[in-house]
Amino acid sequence: MTHQNAIDTVVGPLAVRVVGSGLPAVLWPSLFMDARSWDRVVPALAQDRCLVIIDGPGHGASGDPGRRYTLRDCVTGARQVLHAMSVTEPVDWVGNAWGGHVGLQLAADHPEQCRTLVTLGTPVASLSPAERRRTYPLLALHGVLGPITPVLSGVTKVLLSTHTRGHDPEAVDLVCDSLRHARRRMLRNAVLSISLGREDLTPQLTQITTPTLIVTGSEHAGFTPDQAEAAARLLPHGRTAIVPDAAYLVPLEAAAATATLIREFWAHPVNGVDNPAPRENPTTHEPVAAPSPNDRRRSG
């Protein structure tokens, strides 16, 4: 089953695509990307779940509220989508970067609505001064001249790993196409609201009791394997997994590994309420490993 519609929310009309059947799982993509960034993992994930795939405000076919908005506004928007779809049971939330931030906030504020949480390439801290210095010029350039080559190059270098840029032209084309079709005002509003305006989510991690899998790419400069492991240690039921040759856009760059990680996590999210799930941080190029809880090593 596949169908699409738009649902009015506090963050504007959000475009929603529904694929598959079974327990509900929400997929929310990264900033700069639309729902197409999930296409490579959808066939595998839809074997287990009814996927509710949401375009973030100002991205893809979604509108925006015409004002600045917050992460909690995005949570409210997602909950309004679920309410409109008569989804009353907890969901499995899967978020890439921005989508992971929304999921963390949902799990912290509304744990009853989140069965499991998977964050993919989602930095927990707010932007560093260096990241802000890189973002403002690109944002200004895009606002004046649109998706010209320096903008496209700058964004792809952040979102995609060196390996992906060199060996996966389809992924590069998708990032560029998302930027070319973005509405400038709405994209600027999203970056200012959600990226440059994002607060540090670290203090909230200890409050999240939802079984959580934190995944990052081995080449993610903004959320390194060590940072992912540190974040997972703050979660009562947290695991980590490191995907080789990927950066921000893990589900696009490493679809098979990502789908395997998610489906295995869905099948075995925790070992028990009083026995937090061990971290999964593979030390080889295999997508999944089963190290002891004390294993803190990076992938090779």
UniProtKB/TrEMBL annotation:
GO molecular function: catalytic activity
Pfam families: Abhydrolase_1
InterPro entries per record: AB_hydrolase_1, AB_hydrolase_fold, AB_hydrolase_sf
Tree of life domain: Bacteria
SUPFAM superfamilies (alphabetical): alpha/beta-Hydrolases (SSF53474)
UniProt region (Disordered), positions on chain: 273-300
AB hydrolase-1 domain sequence ranges: 29-247
Name of the protein in its database record: Pimeloyl-ACP methyl ester carboxylesterase
UniProt organism field: Humibacillus xanthopallidus
Taxonomic path: Bacteria, Bacillati, Actinomycetota, Actinomycetes, Micrococcales
